[in-house]
Amino acid sequence: MSDTFKAILISRDEAKKQSVDIVDMSPDDLMEGDVDVRVEATTVNYKDGLAITGKAPIVRRWPMIPGVDLAGTVMRSTNPEWKEGDKVVLNGWGVGETHYGAFAGLARLRGEWLVPLPERFSAEDAMAIGTAGYTAMLSVLALERAGLSPERGPAIVTGASGGVGSFAVALLARRGWHVIASTGRTVEADYLKSLGAAEVIDRSELSEPGKPLGKERWAAGIDAVGSHTLANVLASTRYHGAVAACGLAQGMDLPVTVAPFILRGVSLLGIDSVMAERPSRLEAWARLAEDLTDETLGSIGTRIGFDGILQAAHDIVDGRIRGRVVVAMP
């Protein structure tokens, strides 16, 4: 395979000044791996936006091709699990951070990082889901393992207009939950209700410092925000409820007391999508294929081309993107 392909490459100089360029590369330029995948679709995540804009230290090896999600077709494999022509999905594993990522025509990866693309989904469908939808499903599964069900009461979703939040709203509603969607963009109320939200509240209700305990408002939560928002969600969670924490859009801090945990028996469930073990990934993708409707996929995903990635990266960091961005590769 001697053909060249386009790639986005993030570099920095001796003064640690970052630059982002679109370059031509060949397979010989790629990092080590036992499976080559033709990238047919990718997406722009919040983490990708941070990497490209340099607003957070996402990249840990220089230079780097960003992009943490991809779907495509195996072109070459020395891994016994995969053969030429297999359709695959990748989420996480440090790709786009320490290993060349998805914003290129070809990706060389380790076979154990891949999972089969469910037959129901196209490559673009899978990227409309991406890490956001996969993380949302890991969160739903965690709440279910904690014994929670819609009969226990409402569920709160924070950062509801974003990628993870949009899918969390849709997935919970699909399973019968009364979903309260918290968003900083209340103009998106109709969008969130179309996904299944029963109520939409302004994030300002949760984003400022609050009391150690509040009125019991919900039995479960999926939080993609962190900081004071997560603290307030926990403070208003019902007795023996649980909250799945999967993001840090407001901050990495958690200014909470032990009150929700020792007075109401609330559980805080940590969700790691990047290094999740293969059985968890397979379970999540199987449930996504079962629970997601075509209508939901169509309403959450906005499609762009490769040339739109850099602008989308800035837009997502600036909070100007609703739902998911799907990149159809050349």
What are the SSEs and their pairings?
Layout: E1 5-12, E2 18-25, E3 35-43, H1 46-53, E4 69-77, E5 87-91, E6 106-109, E7 114-116, H2 123-145, E8 155-157, H3 163-174, E9 179-183, H4 189-195, E10 199-202, E11 218-223, H5 227-235, E12 237-245, H6 259-263, E13 267-270, H7 278-291, H8 294-300, E14 301-305, H9 309-317, E15 324-328
Parallel strand pairs: 8-9, 8-11, 9-10, 11-12, 12-13, 14-15
Antiparallel strand pairs: 1-2, 3-4, 3-6, 3-15, 4-5, 5-7
Helix pairs in contact: 1-9, 2-3, 2-7
Write up this protein:
By secondary structure, the protein is an alpha/beta fold. It has two domains: 5-117 and 299-328, Medium-chain alcohol dehydrogenases, catalytic domain (Quinone Oxidoreductase, Chain A, domain 1), CATH 3.90.180; 131-270, NAD(P)-binding Rossmann-like Domain (Rossmann fold), CATH 3.40.50. Helices cover 28% and strands 26% of the residues. It is built from nine helices and 15 strands. It has helices spanning 46-53, 123-145, 163-174, 189-195, 227-235, 259-263, 278-291, 294-300, 309-317; strands spanning 5-12, 18-25, 35-43, 69-77, 87-91, 106-109, 114-116, 155-157, 179-183, 199-202, 218-223, 237-245, 267-270, 301-305, 324-328. Strands 3, 4, 5, 6, 7, 14 and 15 form a seven-stranded mixed β-sheet that branches. β9 (179-183), α4 and β10 form a beta-alpha-beta unit. The longest helix has 23 residues, at 123-145. The chain starts with a strand and ends with a strand. The mean pLDDT is 96.
